[in-house]
Design a protein that fits this description.
single chain; about 450 residues; alpha/beta
């Protein structure tokens, strides 16, 4: 078998066989196929696509390129969730404790962020002493004992994806549904959970810019789940404005804590309740969406969801005083209020630019080697459809440096105003499962 023939075959739009995909992944991981040939195949896939069977085989080969976590020692159904990411997305920090407090085992392996704000691991590491590296034995023991763990992905998990993603990033081949779907699902399947909920975001601050693309990606990942006989469901949510008010790592931890106390932003709370209800149905802990939502609201009201976060932080050697007293989390040297220069209804917020502005404060990474500053970020005071008077505070900027005039002007430009009343945009557009995509 010659790799150049595989490139040629995909270039003209033909489907690859299981053996050809095996040869591709195995050869790239062991170094026998060079970057320049793999780059050519990736570009051909971007232009020609892949059918469902090819995508399933690609996911399978990537999945078994490294270790696969065995969670069979965890009692009951284990659940996981994955978000395709966005600005202000701190969902796991509130959602996982809420669902665990309802009696579901959450075994979550998370990653770091590149661009915008940090990933889930960057956020939890804002908590002093929090350990993201657990042995598989300790990981399973913790999930069995308290129902919840959030840890870093093993370096031996899906090495094919690590190599391919690094190459895709520098060859303009990231934005391909077959490549995105196989990348996400190979990691989620290797993490070993019985059920997976996908929060697929669309909009300016998301990976998928349109509802149609988000729906196509979600459907593809659900079909991959079918191939592996896994219960995979997806909700499609709006990322045309930041999720919640806080953008930045310690700031998002604090907002997640407030949400578990019933004091979180309305949109973020809604998303957690919606996602959590699907996870309870997947775990067979509720017979209906209404029952699931009632259980989730109850664990917020009675404090057991907050207690579950404290248990997790304590188990992973984090400073629980920072959970009880969020003011002890890392703080920036300066908190600067930015006041409105005009009045009207907020017509649109540019989420992507807000994410970039937060990254420039130090809340995210331009390159992999950048060190994230946990204290900095932006806390919005006004969002879509809110009325703003001249002089109102649009946001508080938490920074360890002075703000340039150019940065402040770019912040103002993220807001668009209207004299006419604006409707609050939908947050969750649809929920997909195996039945709905047939």
């Amino acid at each position: 078998m010659r790799f150049v023939d595989i490139i040629e075959k995909k270039k003209i739009g033909q489907a690859l066989t299981k053996d050809e995909i095996h040869y591709f992944i195995q050869g790239y991981v062991n170094g026998s196929i060079p970057d320049y040939q793999v780059s050519a195949l990736l570009m051909a896939i971007c232009f020609q696509g892949m059918n469902d069977q090819e995508i399933a085989w690609l996911t399978e080969e990537m999945l078994y390129s490294g270790d696969v976590i065995d969670l069979s020692m965890i009692t009951g159904i284990t659940c996981d969730k994955h978000s395709t990411g966005g600005v202000g997305d701190k969902t796991s920090l509130s959602l996982a404790p809420m669902v665990a407090a309802c009696g579901v085992h959450i075994a979550k392996m998370s990653g770091r962020g590149l661009g915008h704000t940090g990933g889930t691991l960057d956020k939890v590491e804002s908590i002093e002493g929090f350990q993201i590296a657990l042995s598989q034995e300790a990981f399973i023991k913790q999930v069995n004992e308290i129902g919840l763990a959030i840890v870093g992905q093993s370096k031996t998990l899906v090495p094919a994806d690590k190599k391919l993603y690094a190459l895709r990033d520098v060859t303009a081949t990231v934005n391909s549904i077959p490549l995105i779907a196989s990348s996400i699902m190979s990691k989620k399947l290797a993490s070993g959970a019985d059920t997976i909920l996908l929060d697929v975001k669309f909009g300016e601050g998301a990976f998928m810019t349109t509802l149609e693309d988000a729906q196509a990606l979600a459907s593809t990942m659900i079909r991959i789940g079918q191939h592996f006989q896994k219960d995979v469901r997806a909700m499609i949510s709006n990322m045309n404005q930041p999720l919640g008010n806080a953008i930045g790592n310690a700031l998002e931890v604090e907002e997640a804590i407030q949400t578990l106390k019933g004091k979180g932003p309305k949109d973020f709370t809604q998303l957690c309740i919606e996602a959590g209800s699907i996870m309870l149905l997947q775990a067979k802990k509720a017979a209906s969406k209404e029952e699931a939502e009632a259980k989730l609201r109850q664990v917020i009201e009675d404090g057991s969801a907050f207690d579950k976060l404290v248990e997790m932080v304590k188990s992973q050697h984090g400073n629980i005083n920072q959970i009880y007293h969020p003011e002890l989390l890392p703080k920036a040297n300066h908190v600067i209020a930015i006041h409105a220069k005009t009045q009207g209804y907020v017509k649109k917020l540019h989420a992507l630019e807000l994410g970039v502005l937060a990254m420039e404060l130090g809340a995210g990474r331009r390159i992999k080697e950048d060190i994230v500053d946990p204290a900095v970020g932006i806390v919005l005071q006004k969002k879509d459809a809110d009325y703003v008077n001249e002089g109102d505070v649009l946001a508080y900027v938490h920074t360890n440096h002075s703000l340039s005039d150019a940065w402040i002007q770019r912040f103002y430009d993220t807001f668009e105003f209207s004299n006419e009343k604006v409707d609050v945009p939908n947050l969750i557009y649809m929920v997909l499962d195996q039945e709905s995509i047939k």
